[in-house]
């Protein structure tokens, strides 16, 4: 540091010590604290922004799914997906999706937003930053946007009456519970393949179902295949033997897989007008 090491006193060193301990160190501590607070504030804003983006994306996807279902009925019923704020976390949802975070450049430090949600901000971030019991579970739960949403499927009858799947699932037969599964799958595939059903499709649209329609009766199987055709999918169905009579006449091609000893035979078959099986 350019100090004279042969001096008989420590005046220069004491002065340097005083400068560092009384002036520079407090300045560094203040800067570190300020940087820490800004970093944490940035983290909280980024966290809420990411949650908001994921929630809006999920709501948009649900809207697209409903567009795919809007003009397609299953028998006399139509279906519609619902996404709503989960009741127990509704106040967190309202904070995450508040327009104050979207418009006007507001952030967590903004007086209006902070005044409105100060309790929710502190409570939510305490759940994901405070170590202790169930810490890992809390982090997994409250960093997942699905935690703040409730998903359901509505069935709208020909009379306009609406039933929610979550309220009726445990009360219905196996065939009735399989129907919403196929509805959800078809709408999801239509969204993934991104084809426009108003135009002649010219892209791959393949779906493969194993143990297809295993719990459905003949009427529901017929309605399911009709819906597959409406969506213009290219479908491969693998079905148990007892469902063959219900499916065979409704599809374009039938292949029977038969095991004989150590050999597996694949044979085309069809039904004649009298309902007799032709191999």
Keywords:
279 residues; alpha+beta; Rossmann fold; 2 domains; two-stranded parallel ribbon
The spatial strand order of the largest sheet comes to 1-2-3
Average pLDDT for all residues: 83
Q: State the major sheet.
A: 3 strands, antiparallel
Q: How many extended strands?
A: 9
What are the low-pLDDT stretches, counting only 5+ consecutive residues below 50?
A: none
Radius of gyration: 32 Å
Structure, briefly:
By secondary structure, the chain is an alpha+beta fold. The chain has helices at residues 11-69, 90-96, 99-102, 111-129, 135-142, 165-168, 174-193, 218-230, 244-247, and strands at residues 78-85, 149-156, 162-164, 206-210, 234-238, 255-260, 263-268, 270-271, 277-278. It starts with 10 loop residues before the first helix and ends with a strand.
Outline the secondary-structure elements.
Elements: H1 11-69, E1 78-85, H2 90-96, H3 99-102, H4 111-129, H5 135-142, E2 149-156, E3 162-164, H6 165-168, H7 174-193, E4 206-210, H8 218-230, E5 234-238, H9 244-247, E6 255-260, E7 263-268, E8 270-271, E9 277-278
Helix pairs in contact: 1-7, 4-5
Description:
- This protein has 279 residues and is α+β, with helices and mostly antiparallel strands.
- The protein has 2 domains: 15-169, no CATH class; 172-195 and 202-279, P-loop containing nucleotide triphosphate hydrolases (Rossmann fold).
- It is built from 9 helices and 9 strands.
- The chain has helices at residues 11-69, 90-96, 99-102, 111-129, 135-142, 165-168, 174-193, 218-230, 244-247, and strands at 78-85, 149-156, 162-164, 206-210, 234-238, 255-260, 263-268, 270-271, 277-278.
- The chain has a 3-stranded antiparallel sheet with strand order 1-2-3.
- A hairpin with a 5-residue loop joins β2 (149-156) and β3.
- α1 packs across α7 and α4 packs across α5 (135-142).
- The protein starts with 10 loop residues before the first helix and ends with a strand.
- The model has no long low-confidence stretch (mean pLDDT 83).
